[in-house]
Amino acid sequence: MYSQLTLRDAVLMLFGKAEPRLPFTVKAEPSSVYYNFAVKPEQAEAFERYITLPAGFRLAPMRCVVGEEPQLLLTLNVYEVTGLAVGIRAEWSTYIYDERGIGRYMVLEARSSEYSMDPVDIITKKGRVEHTMSDSDIRTVVASNDEQLFTCTLRMHDEQPLAAIAPEWMAANDFIYWRNGFCDRTYYGETMVNARVRQAAASDYEIDDATHWAPFIEAEPVHVLRYENALDLMITPWWGI
């Protein structure tokens, strides 16, 4: 029966009557970490020019944690994945309004420890992306353009409070846009909705950012958020094409 359902879905996708949904699992170890940086107010216009948004898109302020005010952000997410892609991935993203005025992710730069795929470069080249977890800390090294490095040592402990993730930040994952205007559609369930997310204090990490993004953002992140559990997602890549 299941083989017949698989064949049916394959035929529907062949004729454009169904969208593929591919597994994308973010591992619990090493923890997925989000480094959320505020764009400097005096750099907001320069930042928007630098990233060359596709026609029809504009930057959206985003609230990541309940109780905060929305602001223009640059987010670096580093994680290990299996499924549609494999290995350690690092993605610099900002937030844009979609055609309905809802805030969504837009990936500006993607790096991977293994060869992968994305809608902009087609092949995401293998590069220096390290994200290693011990009993006490996570050490991250990501090479951006011209081998410019972002590095962080993040200490982990039980005193770090659990963060209340804002619904709009979670919903921003529904459609993840890329710089050419294409988007991936993401489906998620209780592993995302009920995720345990620790928020680190400034004393819990040391960050050194020598990448081309550093001039546009505040040196101190708004927050560093660490997911303790795995995230089981399904993704339809190049959605709507």
Protein model, in words:
- By secondary structure, the chain is mainly beta.
- It has one domain.
- Helix content is 12%, strand content 41%.
- It has a seven-stranded mixed β-barrel with strand order 1-3-4-5-11-12-16.
- β4 and β5 (103-112) form a beta hairpin.
- The protein is globular.
What's the short story on this structure?
The chain has 241 residues and is mainly beta. It is 12% helix and 41% strand. The chain has helices at residues 2-14, 44-51, 167-171, 190-193; strands at residues 22-26, 32-38, 73-83, 87-97, 103-112, 116-118, 122-124, 129-133, 137-143, 149-155, 175-178, 183-188, 197-200, 205-209, 223-227, 231-236.
- Percent of residues in beta strands? 35-45%
Lateral strand order in the biggest sheet? 1-3-4-5-11-12-16
Helix content: 10-25%
How many beta-strand elements?
16
The helix-and-strand class reads mainly beta
Order of helices and strands: HEEHEEEEEEEEHEEHEEEE
Number of domains: 1
Low-confidence spans: 1-18
Sheet of most strands: 7 strands, mixed, barrel
Distance between the termini: 30 Å
Radius of gyration: 18 Å
Shape: globular
Average pLDDT figure: 88
Report the oligomer. single chain
Q: Please count the helical segments.
A: 4
